[in-house]
Hints:
Elements: H1 3-23, H2 31-61, H3 67-74, H4 76-103, H5 113-119, H6 122-143, H7 154-183, H8 186-194
Helix pairs in contact: 1-2, 1-3, 1-6, 2-3, 2-4, 4-6, 5-7, 6-7
Amino acid sequence: xxxxxxxxxxxxxxxLAAGWLADGLPRLDHALALRRRTGWVLTLxxxxxxxxxxxxxxxLSSAGATPADRAAAGLGLAAAPALVVAACGVRRMRRLRAGxxxxxxxxxxxxxxGLRAAAAHPLxxxxxxxxxxxxxxxxxxxxxxxxxxxxxVTGPAITLGVLGVAAIGVRHALRHNRLVERALPAGTASAxxxxxxxx
Length: 199
C-alpha cells in the first residue's frame, strides 16, 4: 500500500462519515436526537478540518516527493469545499446544536420544522459531502496509479463529478425549501403559494 494512501484513507473516511451523518440531520424529529447527531457531525467535521490542515502544512513544509507531499497534492480538489466548511458550516452547526440543546430538555421533545429547516440548510451538509467526495479521486489515484490519468478518462470523470455536485446541491436546496415552507405560519405559506411569482 502506498504510504500516502494510508494518510488519505482515514481522512476520506472522516469526511465521508461526517457527510453521511449531516445528510440525515433534517430527518430527525426529536430535539435530543438532533442535538446528539449535530454533535457527532461537528466533531467529525472539526477532526477532518484539523487533519486536512495538518496534511497540507506537512506537505508544504517538506521538500521533495515525500508521502506528505503526495498526500497534500491529492487534497487540492478538496481544499475549496473544506474552506467553505471552515468559514460557514462550522458556525451553522454550532448554532444548530445550541438551538437543539435549548429544546432538548425532555427526550420526547419534537424538533420544530424551523430547526429541521436549519439542519437542512445547504451550507451545513453540502460542503461536508463535497469535501468527502473530492477526496475520492485522490484515494483512487493513490491506490491505483494511472487510473485517472489514462486517455479519455479525465473528461467523463469531470462531467460525472459536475453532474453529481449539481444533483446533490439541488436535493439540498429542495429539502431546505420544503422544510422552510412547513415552518412558516399557515397564512404566510398559503399567501406565498398563491403568489404568481412563487416557485
